[in-house]
Write the structure tokens for this entry.
Amino acid sequence: DTEVTQTPKHLVMGMTNKKSLKCEQHMGHRAMYWYKQKAKKPPELMFVYSYEKLSINESVPSRFSPECPNSSLLNLHLHALQPEDSALYLCASSQAGANPTGELFFGEGSRLTVL
Amino acid sequence: DQQVKQNSPSLSVQEGRISILNCDYTNSMFDYFLWYKKYPAEGPTFLISISSIKDKNEDGRFTVFLNKSAKHLSLHIVPSQPGDSAVYFCAAVRNFNKFYFGSGTKLNVKP
């Protein structure tokens, strides 16, 4: 199983809603990532979890709250978002630490629209 | 400030010819570099990588070249096939977990 599964694929929410994006992998990877990608822009790193601990937070606003309940799951909790937060949110995983191939495995993404 | 740049948003190549995709970076502390391929409505998939201590890595039709003095890497696809048509992202990695992506180059291989 070399898949990273993200749900939901599409999400529309209002600025006062609370929602969550979910990500799951069963490759035994101990590093998991959230990226945000706007149209015609590169994926931008938001958070990295290594061994279920938050290791990198790229100064992301607190309306985005990551959670890593176990080594296979990664959530992104969303609250009081702004329309400019509309984007494709990509989850990825990799081996933790020195990664011989440097490979990140990406999910298909969750397309978020904030009204 | 974008640390990885792909200055060509698109490239069109005839089937059977060589495709050359370019990428420039600004930080000399990157540990390794990667190329990802992305089809519409899918997440990026890994294609090939190169360590910062090497200058070439080859895998079948795909070869990545790294020029550290110029802070430049390129992906060569030979021969190009219509199925190679996709968006290609260059990425650079620091501290093993920080991946920085370029903005992508859309490759169109014409039959």
Summary: Chain A is about 0% helix and 55% strand. The radius of gyration of chain A is 13 Å. Residues 97 and 104 of chain A are 12 Å apart (CA to CA).
